[in-house]
Design a protein that fits this description.
4-stranded antiparallel sheet, mainly beta, about 0% helix, about 190 residues
Length: about 190
């Protein structure tokens, strides 16, 4: 939460605020705003800024500090993964993936026949699937936004859409049943979205 980590016994009445215990700076968190939590081997971890904290003996302590603020945590049962807006690390601090163009929203894991797939949800470009050092992207065949300011049809029957200036996601084309998105991130020659 924005006020630390809170816990309550699930068999209790969770609507009773007196049953909740809150952990924040006095209990070892470097800041009170926690971006995510995860459990690995029965141990609770919390991300705070650019630090990963572990909960032990009713308090938190920093186990890892990385170069960027952590936005998401995920575990596959044997490894803990940390994500910033552009990087992914493992619990030992190894940077396993970096994007130079695509901003991350969150991460998750799934089992693929005994191999861990790391699912990286991105801001504009679908889901990046990372497995054993290889990646592929799952992108829905859709426009990048539904904020539309203008529509035009070309001589071939292709539908062109300009994004709303408040949304700023470039422009899109729908032709022959396929959407093509033109954004600054995909086409750097476009100066603004």
């Amino acid at each position: 939460t924005e006020s630390g980590v809170a816990k309550v016994k699930l068999l209790e009445s969770i609507i009773d605020k007196n049953l909740w215990i809150n952990y924040s700076k006095p209990e070892g968190l470097p800041e009170i705003s926690v971006t995510d939590i995860a459990v690995l081997d029965g141990d609770l971890y919390a991300s705070v800024g650019n630090k990963l904290c572990k909960f032990e003996n009713d308090s938190f302590y920093v186990v890892l500090e990385v170069s960027d603020n952590i936005i998401s945590l995920a575990t596959d049962g044997s490894q803990l993964y940390l994500a910033s807006l552009y990087k992914i690390w493992t619990l030992d601090g190894t940077n396993i993936y970096t994007s130079y163009t695509t901003r991350f929203n969150s991460i998750s894991t799934r089992d693929n026949n005994g191999n861990t797939q790391l699912l990286i949800c991105t801001e504009l470009y679908g889901i990046i699937v990372f497995e054993s050092g290889d990646t592929f992207t799952i992108v829905p065949n859709s426009p990048v936004t539904n904020g539309i300011s203008d529509i035009a049809i070309n001589s071939h029957g292709g539908l062109w859409i300009a994004s709303d200036k408040n949304v700023g996601r470039g422009f899109m084309k729908f032709e022959d049943g396929v959407w093509t998105n033109f954004t600054k991130g995909i086409y750097p020659e476009i100066k603004l979205n």
